[in-house]
Amino acid sequence: MGIKDAVRSGLKRKSPLFQAIYKGYKLGVRGLYALTRATTKLDEHLVVFDAFQGRQYTCSPKALYQEMLSDPKYQDYRFIWALTEEAEQKNQLAGPRTQVVRYNSRAHKLACARAKYIVTNSMPLGFFRLRRGQELIETWHGTPLKRLGCDIEVDSNSVNTAQEIHQRYQERVKKITTLLSPSDFYTEKLSSAFALRDYGKHVRIIQQGYPRNDFLSRYTPEQAAAIKARLGVPEGKKVILYAPTFRDNQKLDKAYSYGFTLEMDFDHLLDTLGEDYVILFRPHYFVASQFDFAKYEGRVFNVADVDDVNEVYIISDMLITDYSSVFFDYAILKRPILLFMYDLELYQGQLRDFYIDLKELPFPILRTQEQLEEAILDQFQGGFRFTEAYQKFNETYTPMDDGRASHRVLGEIFPE
């Protein structure tokens, strides 16, 4: 057993010795962080990035980072990416102007203490405290269908109560200086979810599009072919992406981990569709480790480990999801979208509820496996149309996602 495993085991068993050691370690790190903040000037040309608590090199932080690397205007800036030990890119990002540190490590904390700019797509770490003149850019990670944060009204979460969720959002919004937005709808709903009127009056909203979606307007057929080849997805097949979200009321044995009960019958689906179809399965990252699809080799591909979801978007011909925000982004591609909402009454009435009346969505809502299979075949056999309602959806929720969002956002954040 390694040192880290031993510490985790001791904490889990609530060993007094390990509890005392861990408490002392945390106090020491916090003290060092506070000392660094107090004695070090802000580095005006240092930017710290992370995405999904260091799990991935992806989303809007990745898009903004790559834009800065490619634009000579930002040649004087240096970058730090915080990634977990498990993140595959930790050895690929290091370069003349980029350093990689372990997420939530001492090096990460000290970087956040002295960097002028911090860019994240989730929540600021608990240790973080804003300094005068420092900027924390919150990109978030999707246009919400389901209610978030302070808008959650029911106690259905298996990990936190609604009150605990509200308190977490209220506290963390105090650390945010800038929130990115792709639309009027997004600005309104995220402002409500983060209770900006009461707790985040200092937050500036930059509504210039979603940086992470730039790739969807700029990718090339050659890039799509290369991604297919890397993932082993055969050419000439109809590719369906299934990307459901987690369920708040389902929990794994491990603390603070959500669960997901698979309701799609892959065996029946594949038999119905035939050999011309393959499925890319991408569960939410909270629950990605629960699935093993070895028996479907060559027909169902587990793409949960593909960091950048845009890669699986562009190689798929259809999206199937439920309450996830992925369909807002995927709609930019103007391809078929099906919503498999088999537990609609439970989800809407007892778990999250929605910001949108589902009747306004231009996508078929399916309740049963049979309905889903019929809809898939119908869409592929000539039933799909990019309708006026679909176009209006894009004009409402992704009006500025034209491939230039990163450029515009950076222009507002960084001084000339």
Describe what this molecule looks like in 3D:
With 416 residues, this protein is α/β, with parallel strands linked by helices. It has two domains: 39-214 and 404-413, Rossmann fold; 217-397, Rossmann fold (3-Layer(aba) Sandwich), CATH 3.40.50. It has helices at residues 3-12, 16-39, 59-70, 106-114, 162-172, 184-193, 196-199, 214-218, 221-231, 266-273, 309-314, 326-330, 344-351, 369-383, 388-397, 405-413, and strands at residues 43-50, 78-83, 98-102, 115-120, 135-138, 178-181, 204-207, 238-242, 247-251, 258-259, 277-281, 300-302, 318-321, 337-340, 365-366. The strands form three sheets. A seven-stranded parallel beta sheet has the order 3-2-1-4-5-6-7, sandwiched between helices. Strands 12-11-8-13-14-15 form a six-stranded parallel beta sheet. The model has no long low-confidence stretch (mean pLDDT 88).
Rg, please? 22 Å
- Share of helical residues: 25-40%
CATH topology of the largest domain: Rossmann fold
At CATH level 2, the architecture of the largest domain is: 3-Layer(aba) Sandwich
Arrangement of strands in the largest sheet: 3-2-1-4-5-6-7
Shape: globular
Give a count of the beta strands, DSSP E runs of length 2 or more. 15
Largest sheet: 7 strands, parallel
Low-pLDDT parts are none
What count of structural domains?
A: 2
At the fourth level of CATH, the homologous superfamily of the largest domain is CDP-glycerol glycerophosphotransferase, N-terminal domain
| First-to-last CA distance | 52 Å
CATH class designation of the largest domain: Alpha Beta
- Structural class comes to alpha/beta
User: Count of helices?
Assistant: 16
Q: What portion of residues belong to β-strands?
A: 15-25%
Q: What is the residue-averaged pLDDT? A: 88
